[in-house]
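[job 4471] stage=fold_predict status=RUNNING
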Amino acid sequence: MEHTELGVVHTKIDRADPEAVAELAKYGVATIHEAMGRVGLMRPYLRPAYPSARMCGTAVTALLQPGDNWMLHVAAEQIQEGDVVVAACTTESEDGFFGELLATSFRARGCRGLIIDGGVRDVTDLERMDFPVFSRAINAKGTVKATLGSVNVPVVCGNALVRPGDAIVADADGVVVVPRERAADVAAASAAREAAEEGKRAQFRAGRLGLDMYGMRGPLAGLGLRYED
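[job 4471] inference complete, writing structure tokens
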């Protein structure tokens, strides 16, 4: 499968292990990103359509044409319980590709949310439905259904490569992509990182400084940092 392939729908994809995805859902995007080696983040312009939006699931991908949401309707048929639709565009477009009606359709198929490198609308309705959406823009401008894209091909969304079946986690800090074959390992690494951070948190609560906890004083002095009364 090539991300430039147009006019194709792949109906069989390999999804990340559901148990591993459920584990990933316990952790925040920042923790997962760090645990994975500081990779996998989408660009920070992809923001939640409403403040409490959060999602975790496996990717069904859609490659859209600018100003055309036809492939989102095609993608709806491929959604399984626990999926997240990740929609990219062949070129930049901020039109309102998605709204309350498509959200209703996606939810009926078991969709956990939408990540789209484009615009969405009906934001008040999406929040009322608690259907999580992360988008490039909020835009009332409508779209047409006239040109072919593809479904379940690799796409580049927010500068991140997403393959069908990869795990997607999104919260107020952004969106991270976990390769499907790494989901279990990244979940375990995220758990370890969370445990380590709880130990540090306890030390900070007790008043210990990061300067001492992280052994920063020597390197700072070595670079010439001075304290003056």
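[job 4471] summary: The mean pLDDT is 96.
[job 4471] exit 0
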